[in-house]
Amino acid sequence: xxxxxxxxxxxxxxxxxxxxxxxxxxxxxxxxxxxxxxxxxxxxxxxxxxxxxxxxxxxxxxxxxxxxxxxxxxxxxxxxxxxxxxxxxxxxxxxx
Length: 96
Fold this sequence. Notes:
Keywords: Membrane, Transmembrane, Transmembrane helix. By secondary structure, this protein is mainly α. It has one helix and no strands. It has one helix at about 20-90. The longest helix has about 70 residues, at about 20-90. The mean pLDDT is about 75.
């Protein structure tokens, strides 16, 4: 490899480039910047979508669990009332 190290504070080097080559390079840079920007926005949008989907699915699961608990508690409360009535009416006395 041909690598040369220069002391700090060296000379300024000016490079002459044709205008057409400079425009082509700048256009390429803007295209790369545009793609990077689009990719960054897409990544952020996907991340926000995943967070919203997760939040919504957890909320739906909580709602379903709460509805199930309410339904079961009503069922068991109703069942408990009937069970008490039935057991009080069906007491059997054994004589010894």
